[in-house]
């Protein structure tokens, strides 16, 4: 359970504004610079960035991780492409389409609540993040889904950007990895008819800092062809999907050289993207929990959340569902990955098939 202070604003807006300073962690301190052995080829660059030997080693592991997140590299690794390993992984995380009846049986007598990531789940992963358009078929499917179940999109994108892609006012949106939560537009969803709209922004105090870092990253990375910095309001993304692999190490150093000056921000990596977020106790799992409480399912045994996502940041939500022993997480991936999800789907077309089957099942029940 998430402990929050909830205050209802004036009657004209009908917005619930939630604020609780307890979600902030103490400011991290800059680690001391410790001399360490570094290779001659990187010596000058690393010295300028004050990287220690341990930090240099961490950079190398980051670059390895960057390579591992590439579908090209995944296909080139025999251990991941082997049929035996894939079959073993699928036994632990079977297809949600194949196990559809079992999922439905587990949800009997409970309210299904849907949580969907956007990139790689509802839309394909594309080279240009500004062109990650949802198909009209997927939009119609999600619209029908929202008529049957409370439905949220939980994404690293800013709400305005993802809403511009989806264009469905009846959904709950949790942008910036759950740090910007907004309920359906009044009158568009039957699930919030009797409730004021929801607004939750636990990282509001970080906005000036995020804007400042965004400008610095744009300036710092402009000499790296293919790099794209995206301002997601409460967090930042540095996309390297279109960056030559030979430039990845250089880009990682540039990004770190900016972020290291802001100890209350943390740097992590997703699918060919660096994520810069406020160092607060908040993630997609916390967002899921908050949305369940907003819907009236706090400490309820009659709710069945289903979370579908493809990225590392979705693992916090998968883990939460495991801990709650309610509902299931579904990982979208064509390759074996370590995950807390119970089931799997290969790609957005399979996600759409699964959502359609849910809608068809619900319509039969009504």
From TrEMBL:
It is an enzyme of class 3 (hydrolase). It comes from Raphanus sativus (Radish). CDD domains: HAD_TPP (cd01627). The keyword Cell division does not apply. Keywords: Hydrolase, Stress response. GO terms for molecular function: trehalose-phosphatase activity. Its EC number is 3.1.3.12. It catalyses: alpha,alpha-trehalose 6-phosphate + H2O = alpha,alpha-trehalose + phosphate. Pfam families: Trehalose_PPase. InterPro entries: HAD-like_sf, HAD-SF_hydro_IIB, HAD_sf, OTSB-like, Trehalose_PPase. Removes the phosphate from trehalose 6-phosphate to produce free trehalose. Trehalose accumulation in plant may improve abiotic stress tolerance. The keyword Repeat does not apply. Belongs to the trehalose phosphatase family. Pathway: Glycan biosynthesis; trehalose biosynthesis. This is Trehalose 6-phosphate phosphatase. It comes from the Eukaryota. GO terms for biological process: trehalose biosynthetic process. Its cofactor is a divalent metal cation.
